[in-house]
Amino acid sequence: MSEEVSVGDGSEEVSAGDGGEEVSAGDGSEEVSVGDGGEEVSVGDGSEEVSVGDGSEEVSVGDGSEEVSAGNGVRGDGGEEVSAGNGGEEVSAGDGGEEVSAGDGSEEVSVGDGSEEVSVGDGSEEVSAGDGSEEVSAGNGGEEVSAGDGGEEVSAGEWG
Which superkingdom is the protein from (predicted)? Predict the structure, then answer.
């Protein structure tokens, strides 16, 4: 294993695993794969993106051009995207739990039955998948990567 948390100033990325650990969320279609080489959760300064799946599904939140695109496995059609500005537009899709919401200070993307969410906000960005145990969060004072049913985590804050 070679878990690592690299936190810089403009292109922070959190990568965990070396063999292809993954967290399945929802009815089996949604999944967060960490460590396969293509999947990464990076939180930067103007081009934050969360990529989930085989590299085609990604949630990118930028400066004036926020867009949420989902590929195969998350949305049936294979290429819907939602772009939102700074008011608080949201799009709900699926069995009543999936929502894609982007606003000013609290952008979040939720996929699954309401437990799985990928949220990018102002000071506490987090990516969580599963029943609330597995989460990959990157924030302003305590970035952490946690995977499994409550045990393994790698954390790095503003102190290092």
Answer: Eukaryota
State the Cα–Cα distance between residues 106 and 113, nearest whole angstrom. Answer: 20
- Chain centroid to CA 132: 13
Reported as a single tens digit per residue, the pLDDT across 4-56 is 443 443 333 444 444 344 433 333 333 344 444 444 444 333 334 444 444 44
Single out the residue of 20, 15, 5, 12 nearest to residue 120, CA to CA: 12
Task: Provide the residue type at 83 as one letter.
Answer: S
List for the chain the helix, strand, coil content (%; round to 5): 0, 50, 50
pTM: 0.12
